[in-house]
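Homework help board

Subject: predicted structure for assignment chain

Our instructor gave us this sequence and asked us to write out the predicted structure in token form, then describe one feature. I got the tokens but I'm not sure how to describe them. Can anyone check?
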Amino acid sequence: MSYFPNVDKIKYEGTETKNPFAFRHFNPEEVILGKTMGEHLPFAVAYWHTMTQDGTDPFGDPVNIRTWETADPMETAKNRVDAFFEILEKLGVGYFCFHDVDIAPTGDSLEEFFANLDEITDLIKEKMDATGIKLLWNTANMFSHPRFNNGAASTNNAEVYAYAAAQVKKGLDLSKKLDGKNYVFWGGREGYESLLNTDMKFEEENIARLFKMAIAYGEKIGHKPQFLLEPKPKEPSKHQYDFDAATTLAFIQKYDLVGEFKLNLEANHATLAGHTFEHELHVARINDALGSIDANQGDMLLGWDTDEFPTNIYDATLAMYELLENGGIAPGGINFDSKVRRSSFEMDDLLLAHIAGMDTFARGLKAAAKLKEDRFFDDLKDKRYGSFKEGIGAKILADSEDLESLTAYALEHDDPKLESSHLEYVKSLLNDYLV
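My token output:
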């Protein structure tokens, strides 16, 4: 059975095509900077938004038409596997991601939930073996159920902590079974509502304790995916502990997790933290912690996580520049943590939306590659910091100066000459690369 009978395998047809089910910019065989576009862009599809999101919003009931839905939760789960891999194959995407609750019903007990996960992942593994599609990462949903009202690893309830640990263990078992490349922790409830009754130090230590248990268990079972932490500043928690890349890196460093954890960064989370996506990617990159990305965008007029498919070429270009500077992102990838808009409720919109996102990142890659070839940013920075290449600047960088010698120099040269950055002109030149 085909869930998308009117759509063939999607191919690159170029910008002149009028076929909505064709790539206009993403050509996986095109070579850019010595690698194919497919190698530069290891796309992944998110199981949650693609297969379980129903179009509900705070003011409206479900609207999405999904022909895999039935009255039986396990039958629906099995149908989703078939439909999901049809989407992946038609898009030509090589990776996917999931939360445990996305793929299987939770049932009436933890034991039943685990049994359901085993049965569904058996089907997923069959599909993976048949298609060659790989698991980019999986994770445990430890934020939706009421038991996690006060957090999972940061909970005040030891029994909830044990339950969360069981989900992580099962998640790692599934990661080994499906040969997952990464494993993500997203602390959706790992934060606080009020400091009046919160022991932040205690909660952060317990979070780190669970992470170290995960590392130890991975070593025990002979499976060590790249562990990733995903920052987000707020929503659902008022203040989440992994606020942004810098905060999360500080946590990694404080609790001796350097080398064990990198970051999975999302564009919309960067927006909520008051940063640009390229800022978050840059912070992670210069600290050797850029692990994987979630590709989406927010609506700047709205103050929550809208998870829109990425269509902003400017943002995609600067994001891809950071990935190129990082030398790629393997074993991470580019996961579309994106959902169709409520008005895009037809089945085929799932394919159209992913095509739009893939084309956007392809355009961003091409522009970023040209910026890199032309040394656009390198030349700007070389000129801006040129005073440190000779004279007193070179001596400062050589650590041959001290406060006394620099004071003597300043007394003799007390009228520094500054140069304009001409930033508006620079931005207009950058725009030329995006056309």
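Reply (TA_rk): Your tokens look well-formed. For the description, you could write something like this. The chain has a mean pLDDT of 97. That's the kind of observation they're looking for.
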